[in-house]
């Protein structure tokens, strides 16, 4: 059976970060109706049975929001419901995103008992002034304590997120923070450049010229410094924003980058399914109250083979290994090597922005900083 994954969205946070454009809502812990949200997700599972039929679920990712706020017993009930309704592999990867303010040893143990086998911790920075700038509720000490608690728990795999490219941050300090985290014992680290999204508090401040921003050169230097530091410690830079010890790569994200299908569950979740050479992307209701009490479905977008191929190019070129363009075209029933695309490939190879071996495309490491533009040239 073709591989697929499940993405489950939990939309509640104790605070809305100023850079975040995900569907998330500030709420007091006591105001979360944990059971009602679980009930709504299970009802949605029943509506997705056809979409999941004939697909092998190899990963489940619970994102947010702050899923570590969700009571583990209710999360366990949802996971049991997913297993009962879909063909879930025995070695399924089950990841929960966590914030340090809602993760300690007791919570990690409870998540492990619920069936979770991987945690992704939103550290973002190990410097208190940077955490304050980012609107985070935890401090550096709390971030380290959360990582240590997760590593001491029965959960076998732990990752952390780090944001670089912050105003006033030196490339050397960005690399030092990454090294400090992996030296705690992590086998996976995601390093994201601070991106200013338009419909966020940071976006509004930037629009008015009131947000301090790092210079592009410093951001690029930080990317390179982190790469040098982590690969020097035996980490594989397997995707533009992700590093892992060999064998510790995130299966869920690799599924996205390889164009695999995923079932989106929960308020604001996106899903993607395919039938032959056509695809369907959907997005659930973004209002939690309407999601819980009414219907999950909100938006649908039909995708033809050409649109799916463009996505394969954009996502496949993010991976260190690249992807086979001819195989992607064959899978979608179209000729991927058009005259225009061949000409663009030749130009990019000449500029050392792309390599091609047979029909396999890959972006050389020094050109990763231009990955988005490179992909766009092949559309």
Descriptive key words:
single chain, alpha/beta, nine-stranded mixed sheet, 2 domains, three-stranded antiparallel sheet, TIM Barrel, 17 strands, 379 residues, 39% helix, 15 helices, Arc Repressor Mutant, subunit A
Fourth-level CATH superfamily of the largest domain: Aldolase class I
Mean pLDDT: 96
Please tell me what the overall shape is. globular
Number of domains: 2
- Number of distinct beta strands: 17
> Beta-sheet strand percentage?
15-25%
The level-1 CATH class of the largest domain: Alpha Beta
- The rounded distance between the terminal residues' Cα atoms is 30 Å
Structure summary:
This protein is an alpha/beta fold and 379 residues long. The protein contains 15 helices and 17 strands. Strands 9-10-8-7-6-5-4-1-11 form a nine-stranded mixed β-sheet, sandwiched between helices.
Structural write-up:
By secondary structure, this protein is an alpha/beta fold. The protein folds into two domains: 3-255, TIM Barrel (Alpha-Beta Barrel), CATH 3.20.20.70; 312-379, Arc Repressor Mutant, subunit A (Orthogonal Bundle). The protein has helices at 34-47, 49-52, 72-85, 105-114, 128-133, 140-152, 171-183, 201-207, 216-231, 251-257, 288-293, 305-316, 325-332, 339-350, 371-377, and strands at residues 3-10, 12-13, 25-26, 56-64, 87-98, 118-124, 157-164, 188-193, 236-239, 242-244, 261-265, 270-275, 278-284, 297-303, 323-324, 355-357, 360-362. It has a nine-stranded mixed β-sheet, with helices on both faces. Helix 1 (34-47) packs parallel to helix 3 and helix 7 runs parallel beside helix 9. The longest helix is centred in the middle third of the chain and has 16 residues, at 216-231. The mean pLDDT is 96.
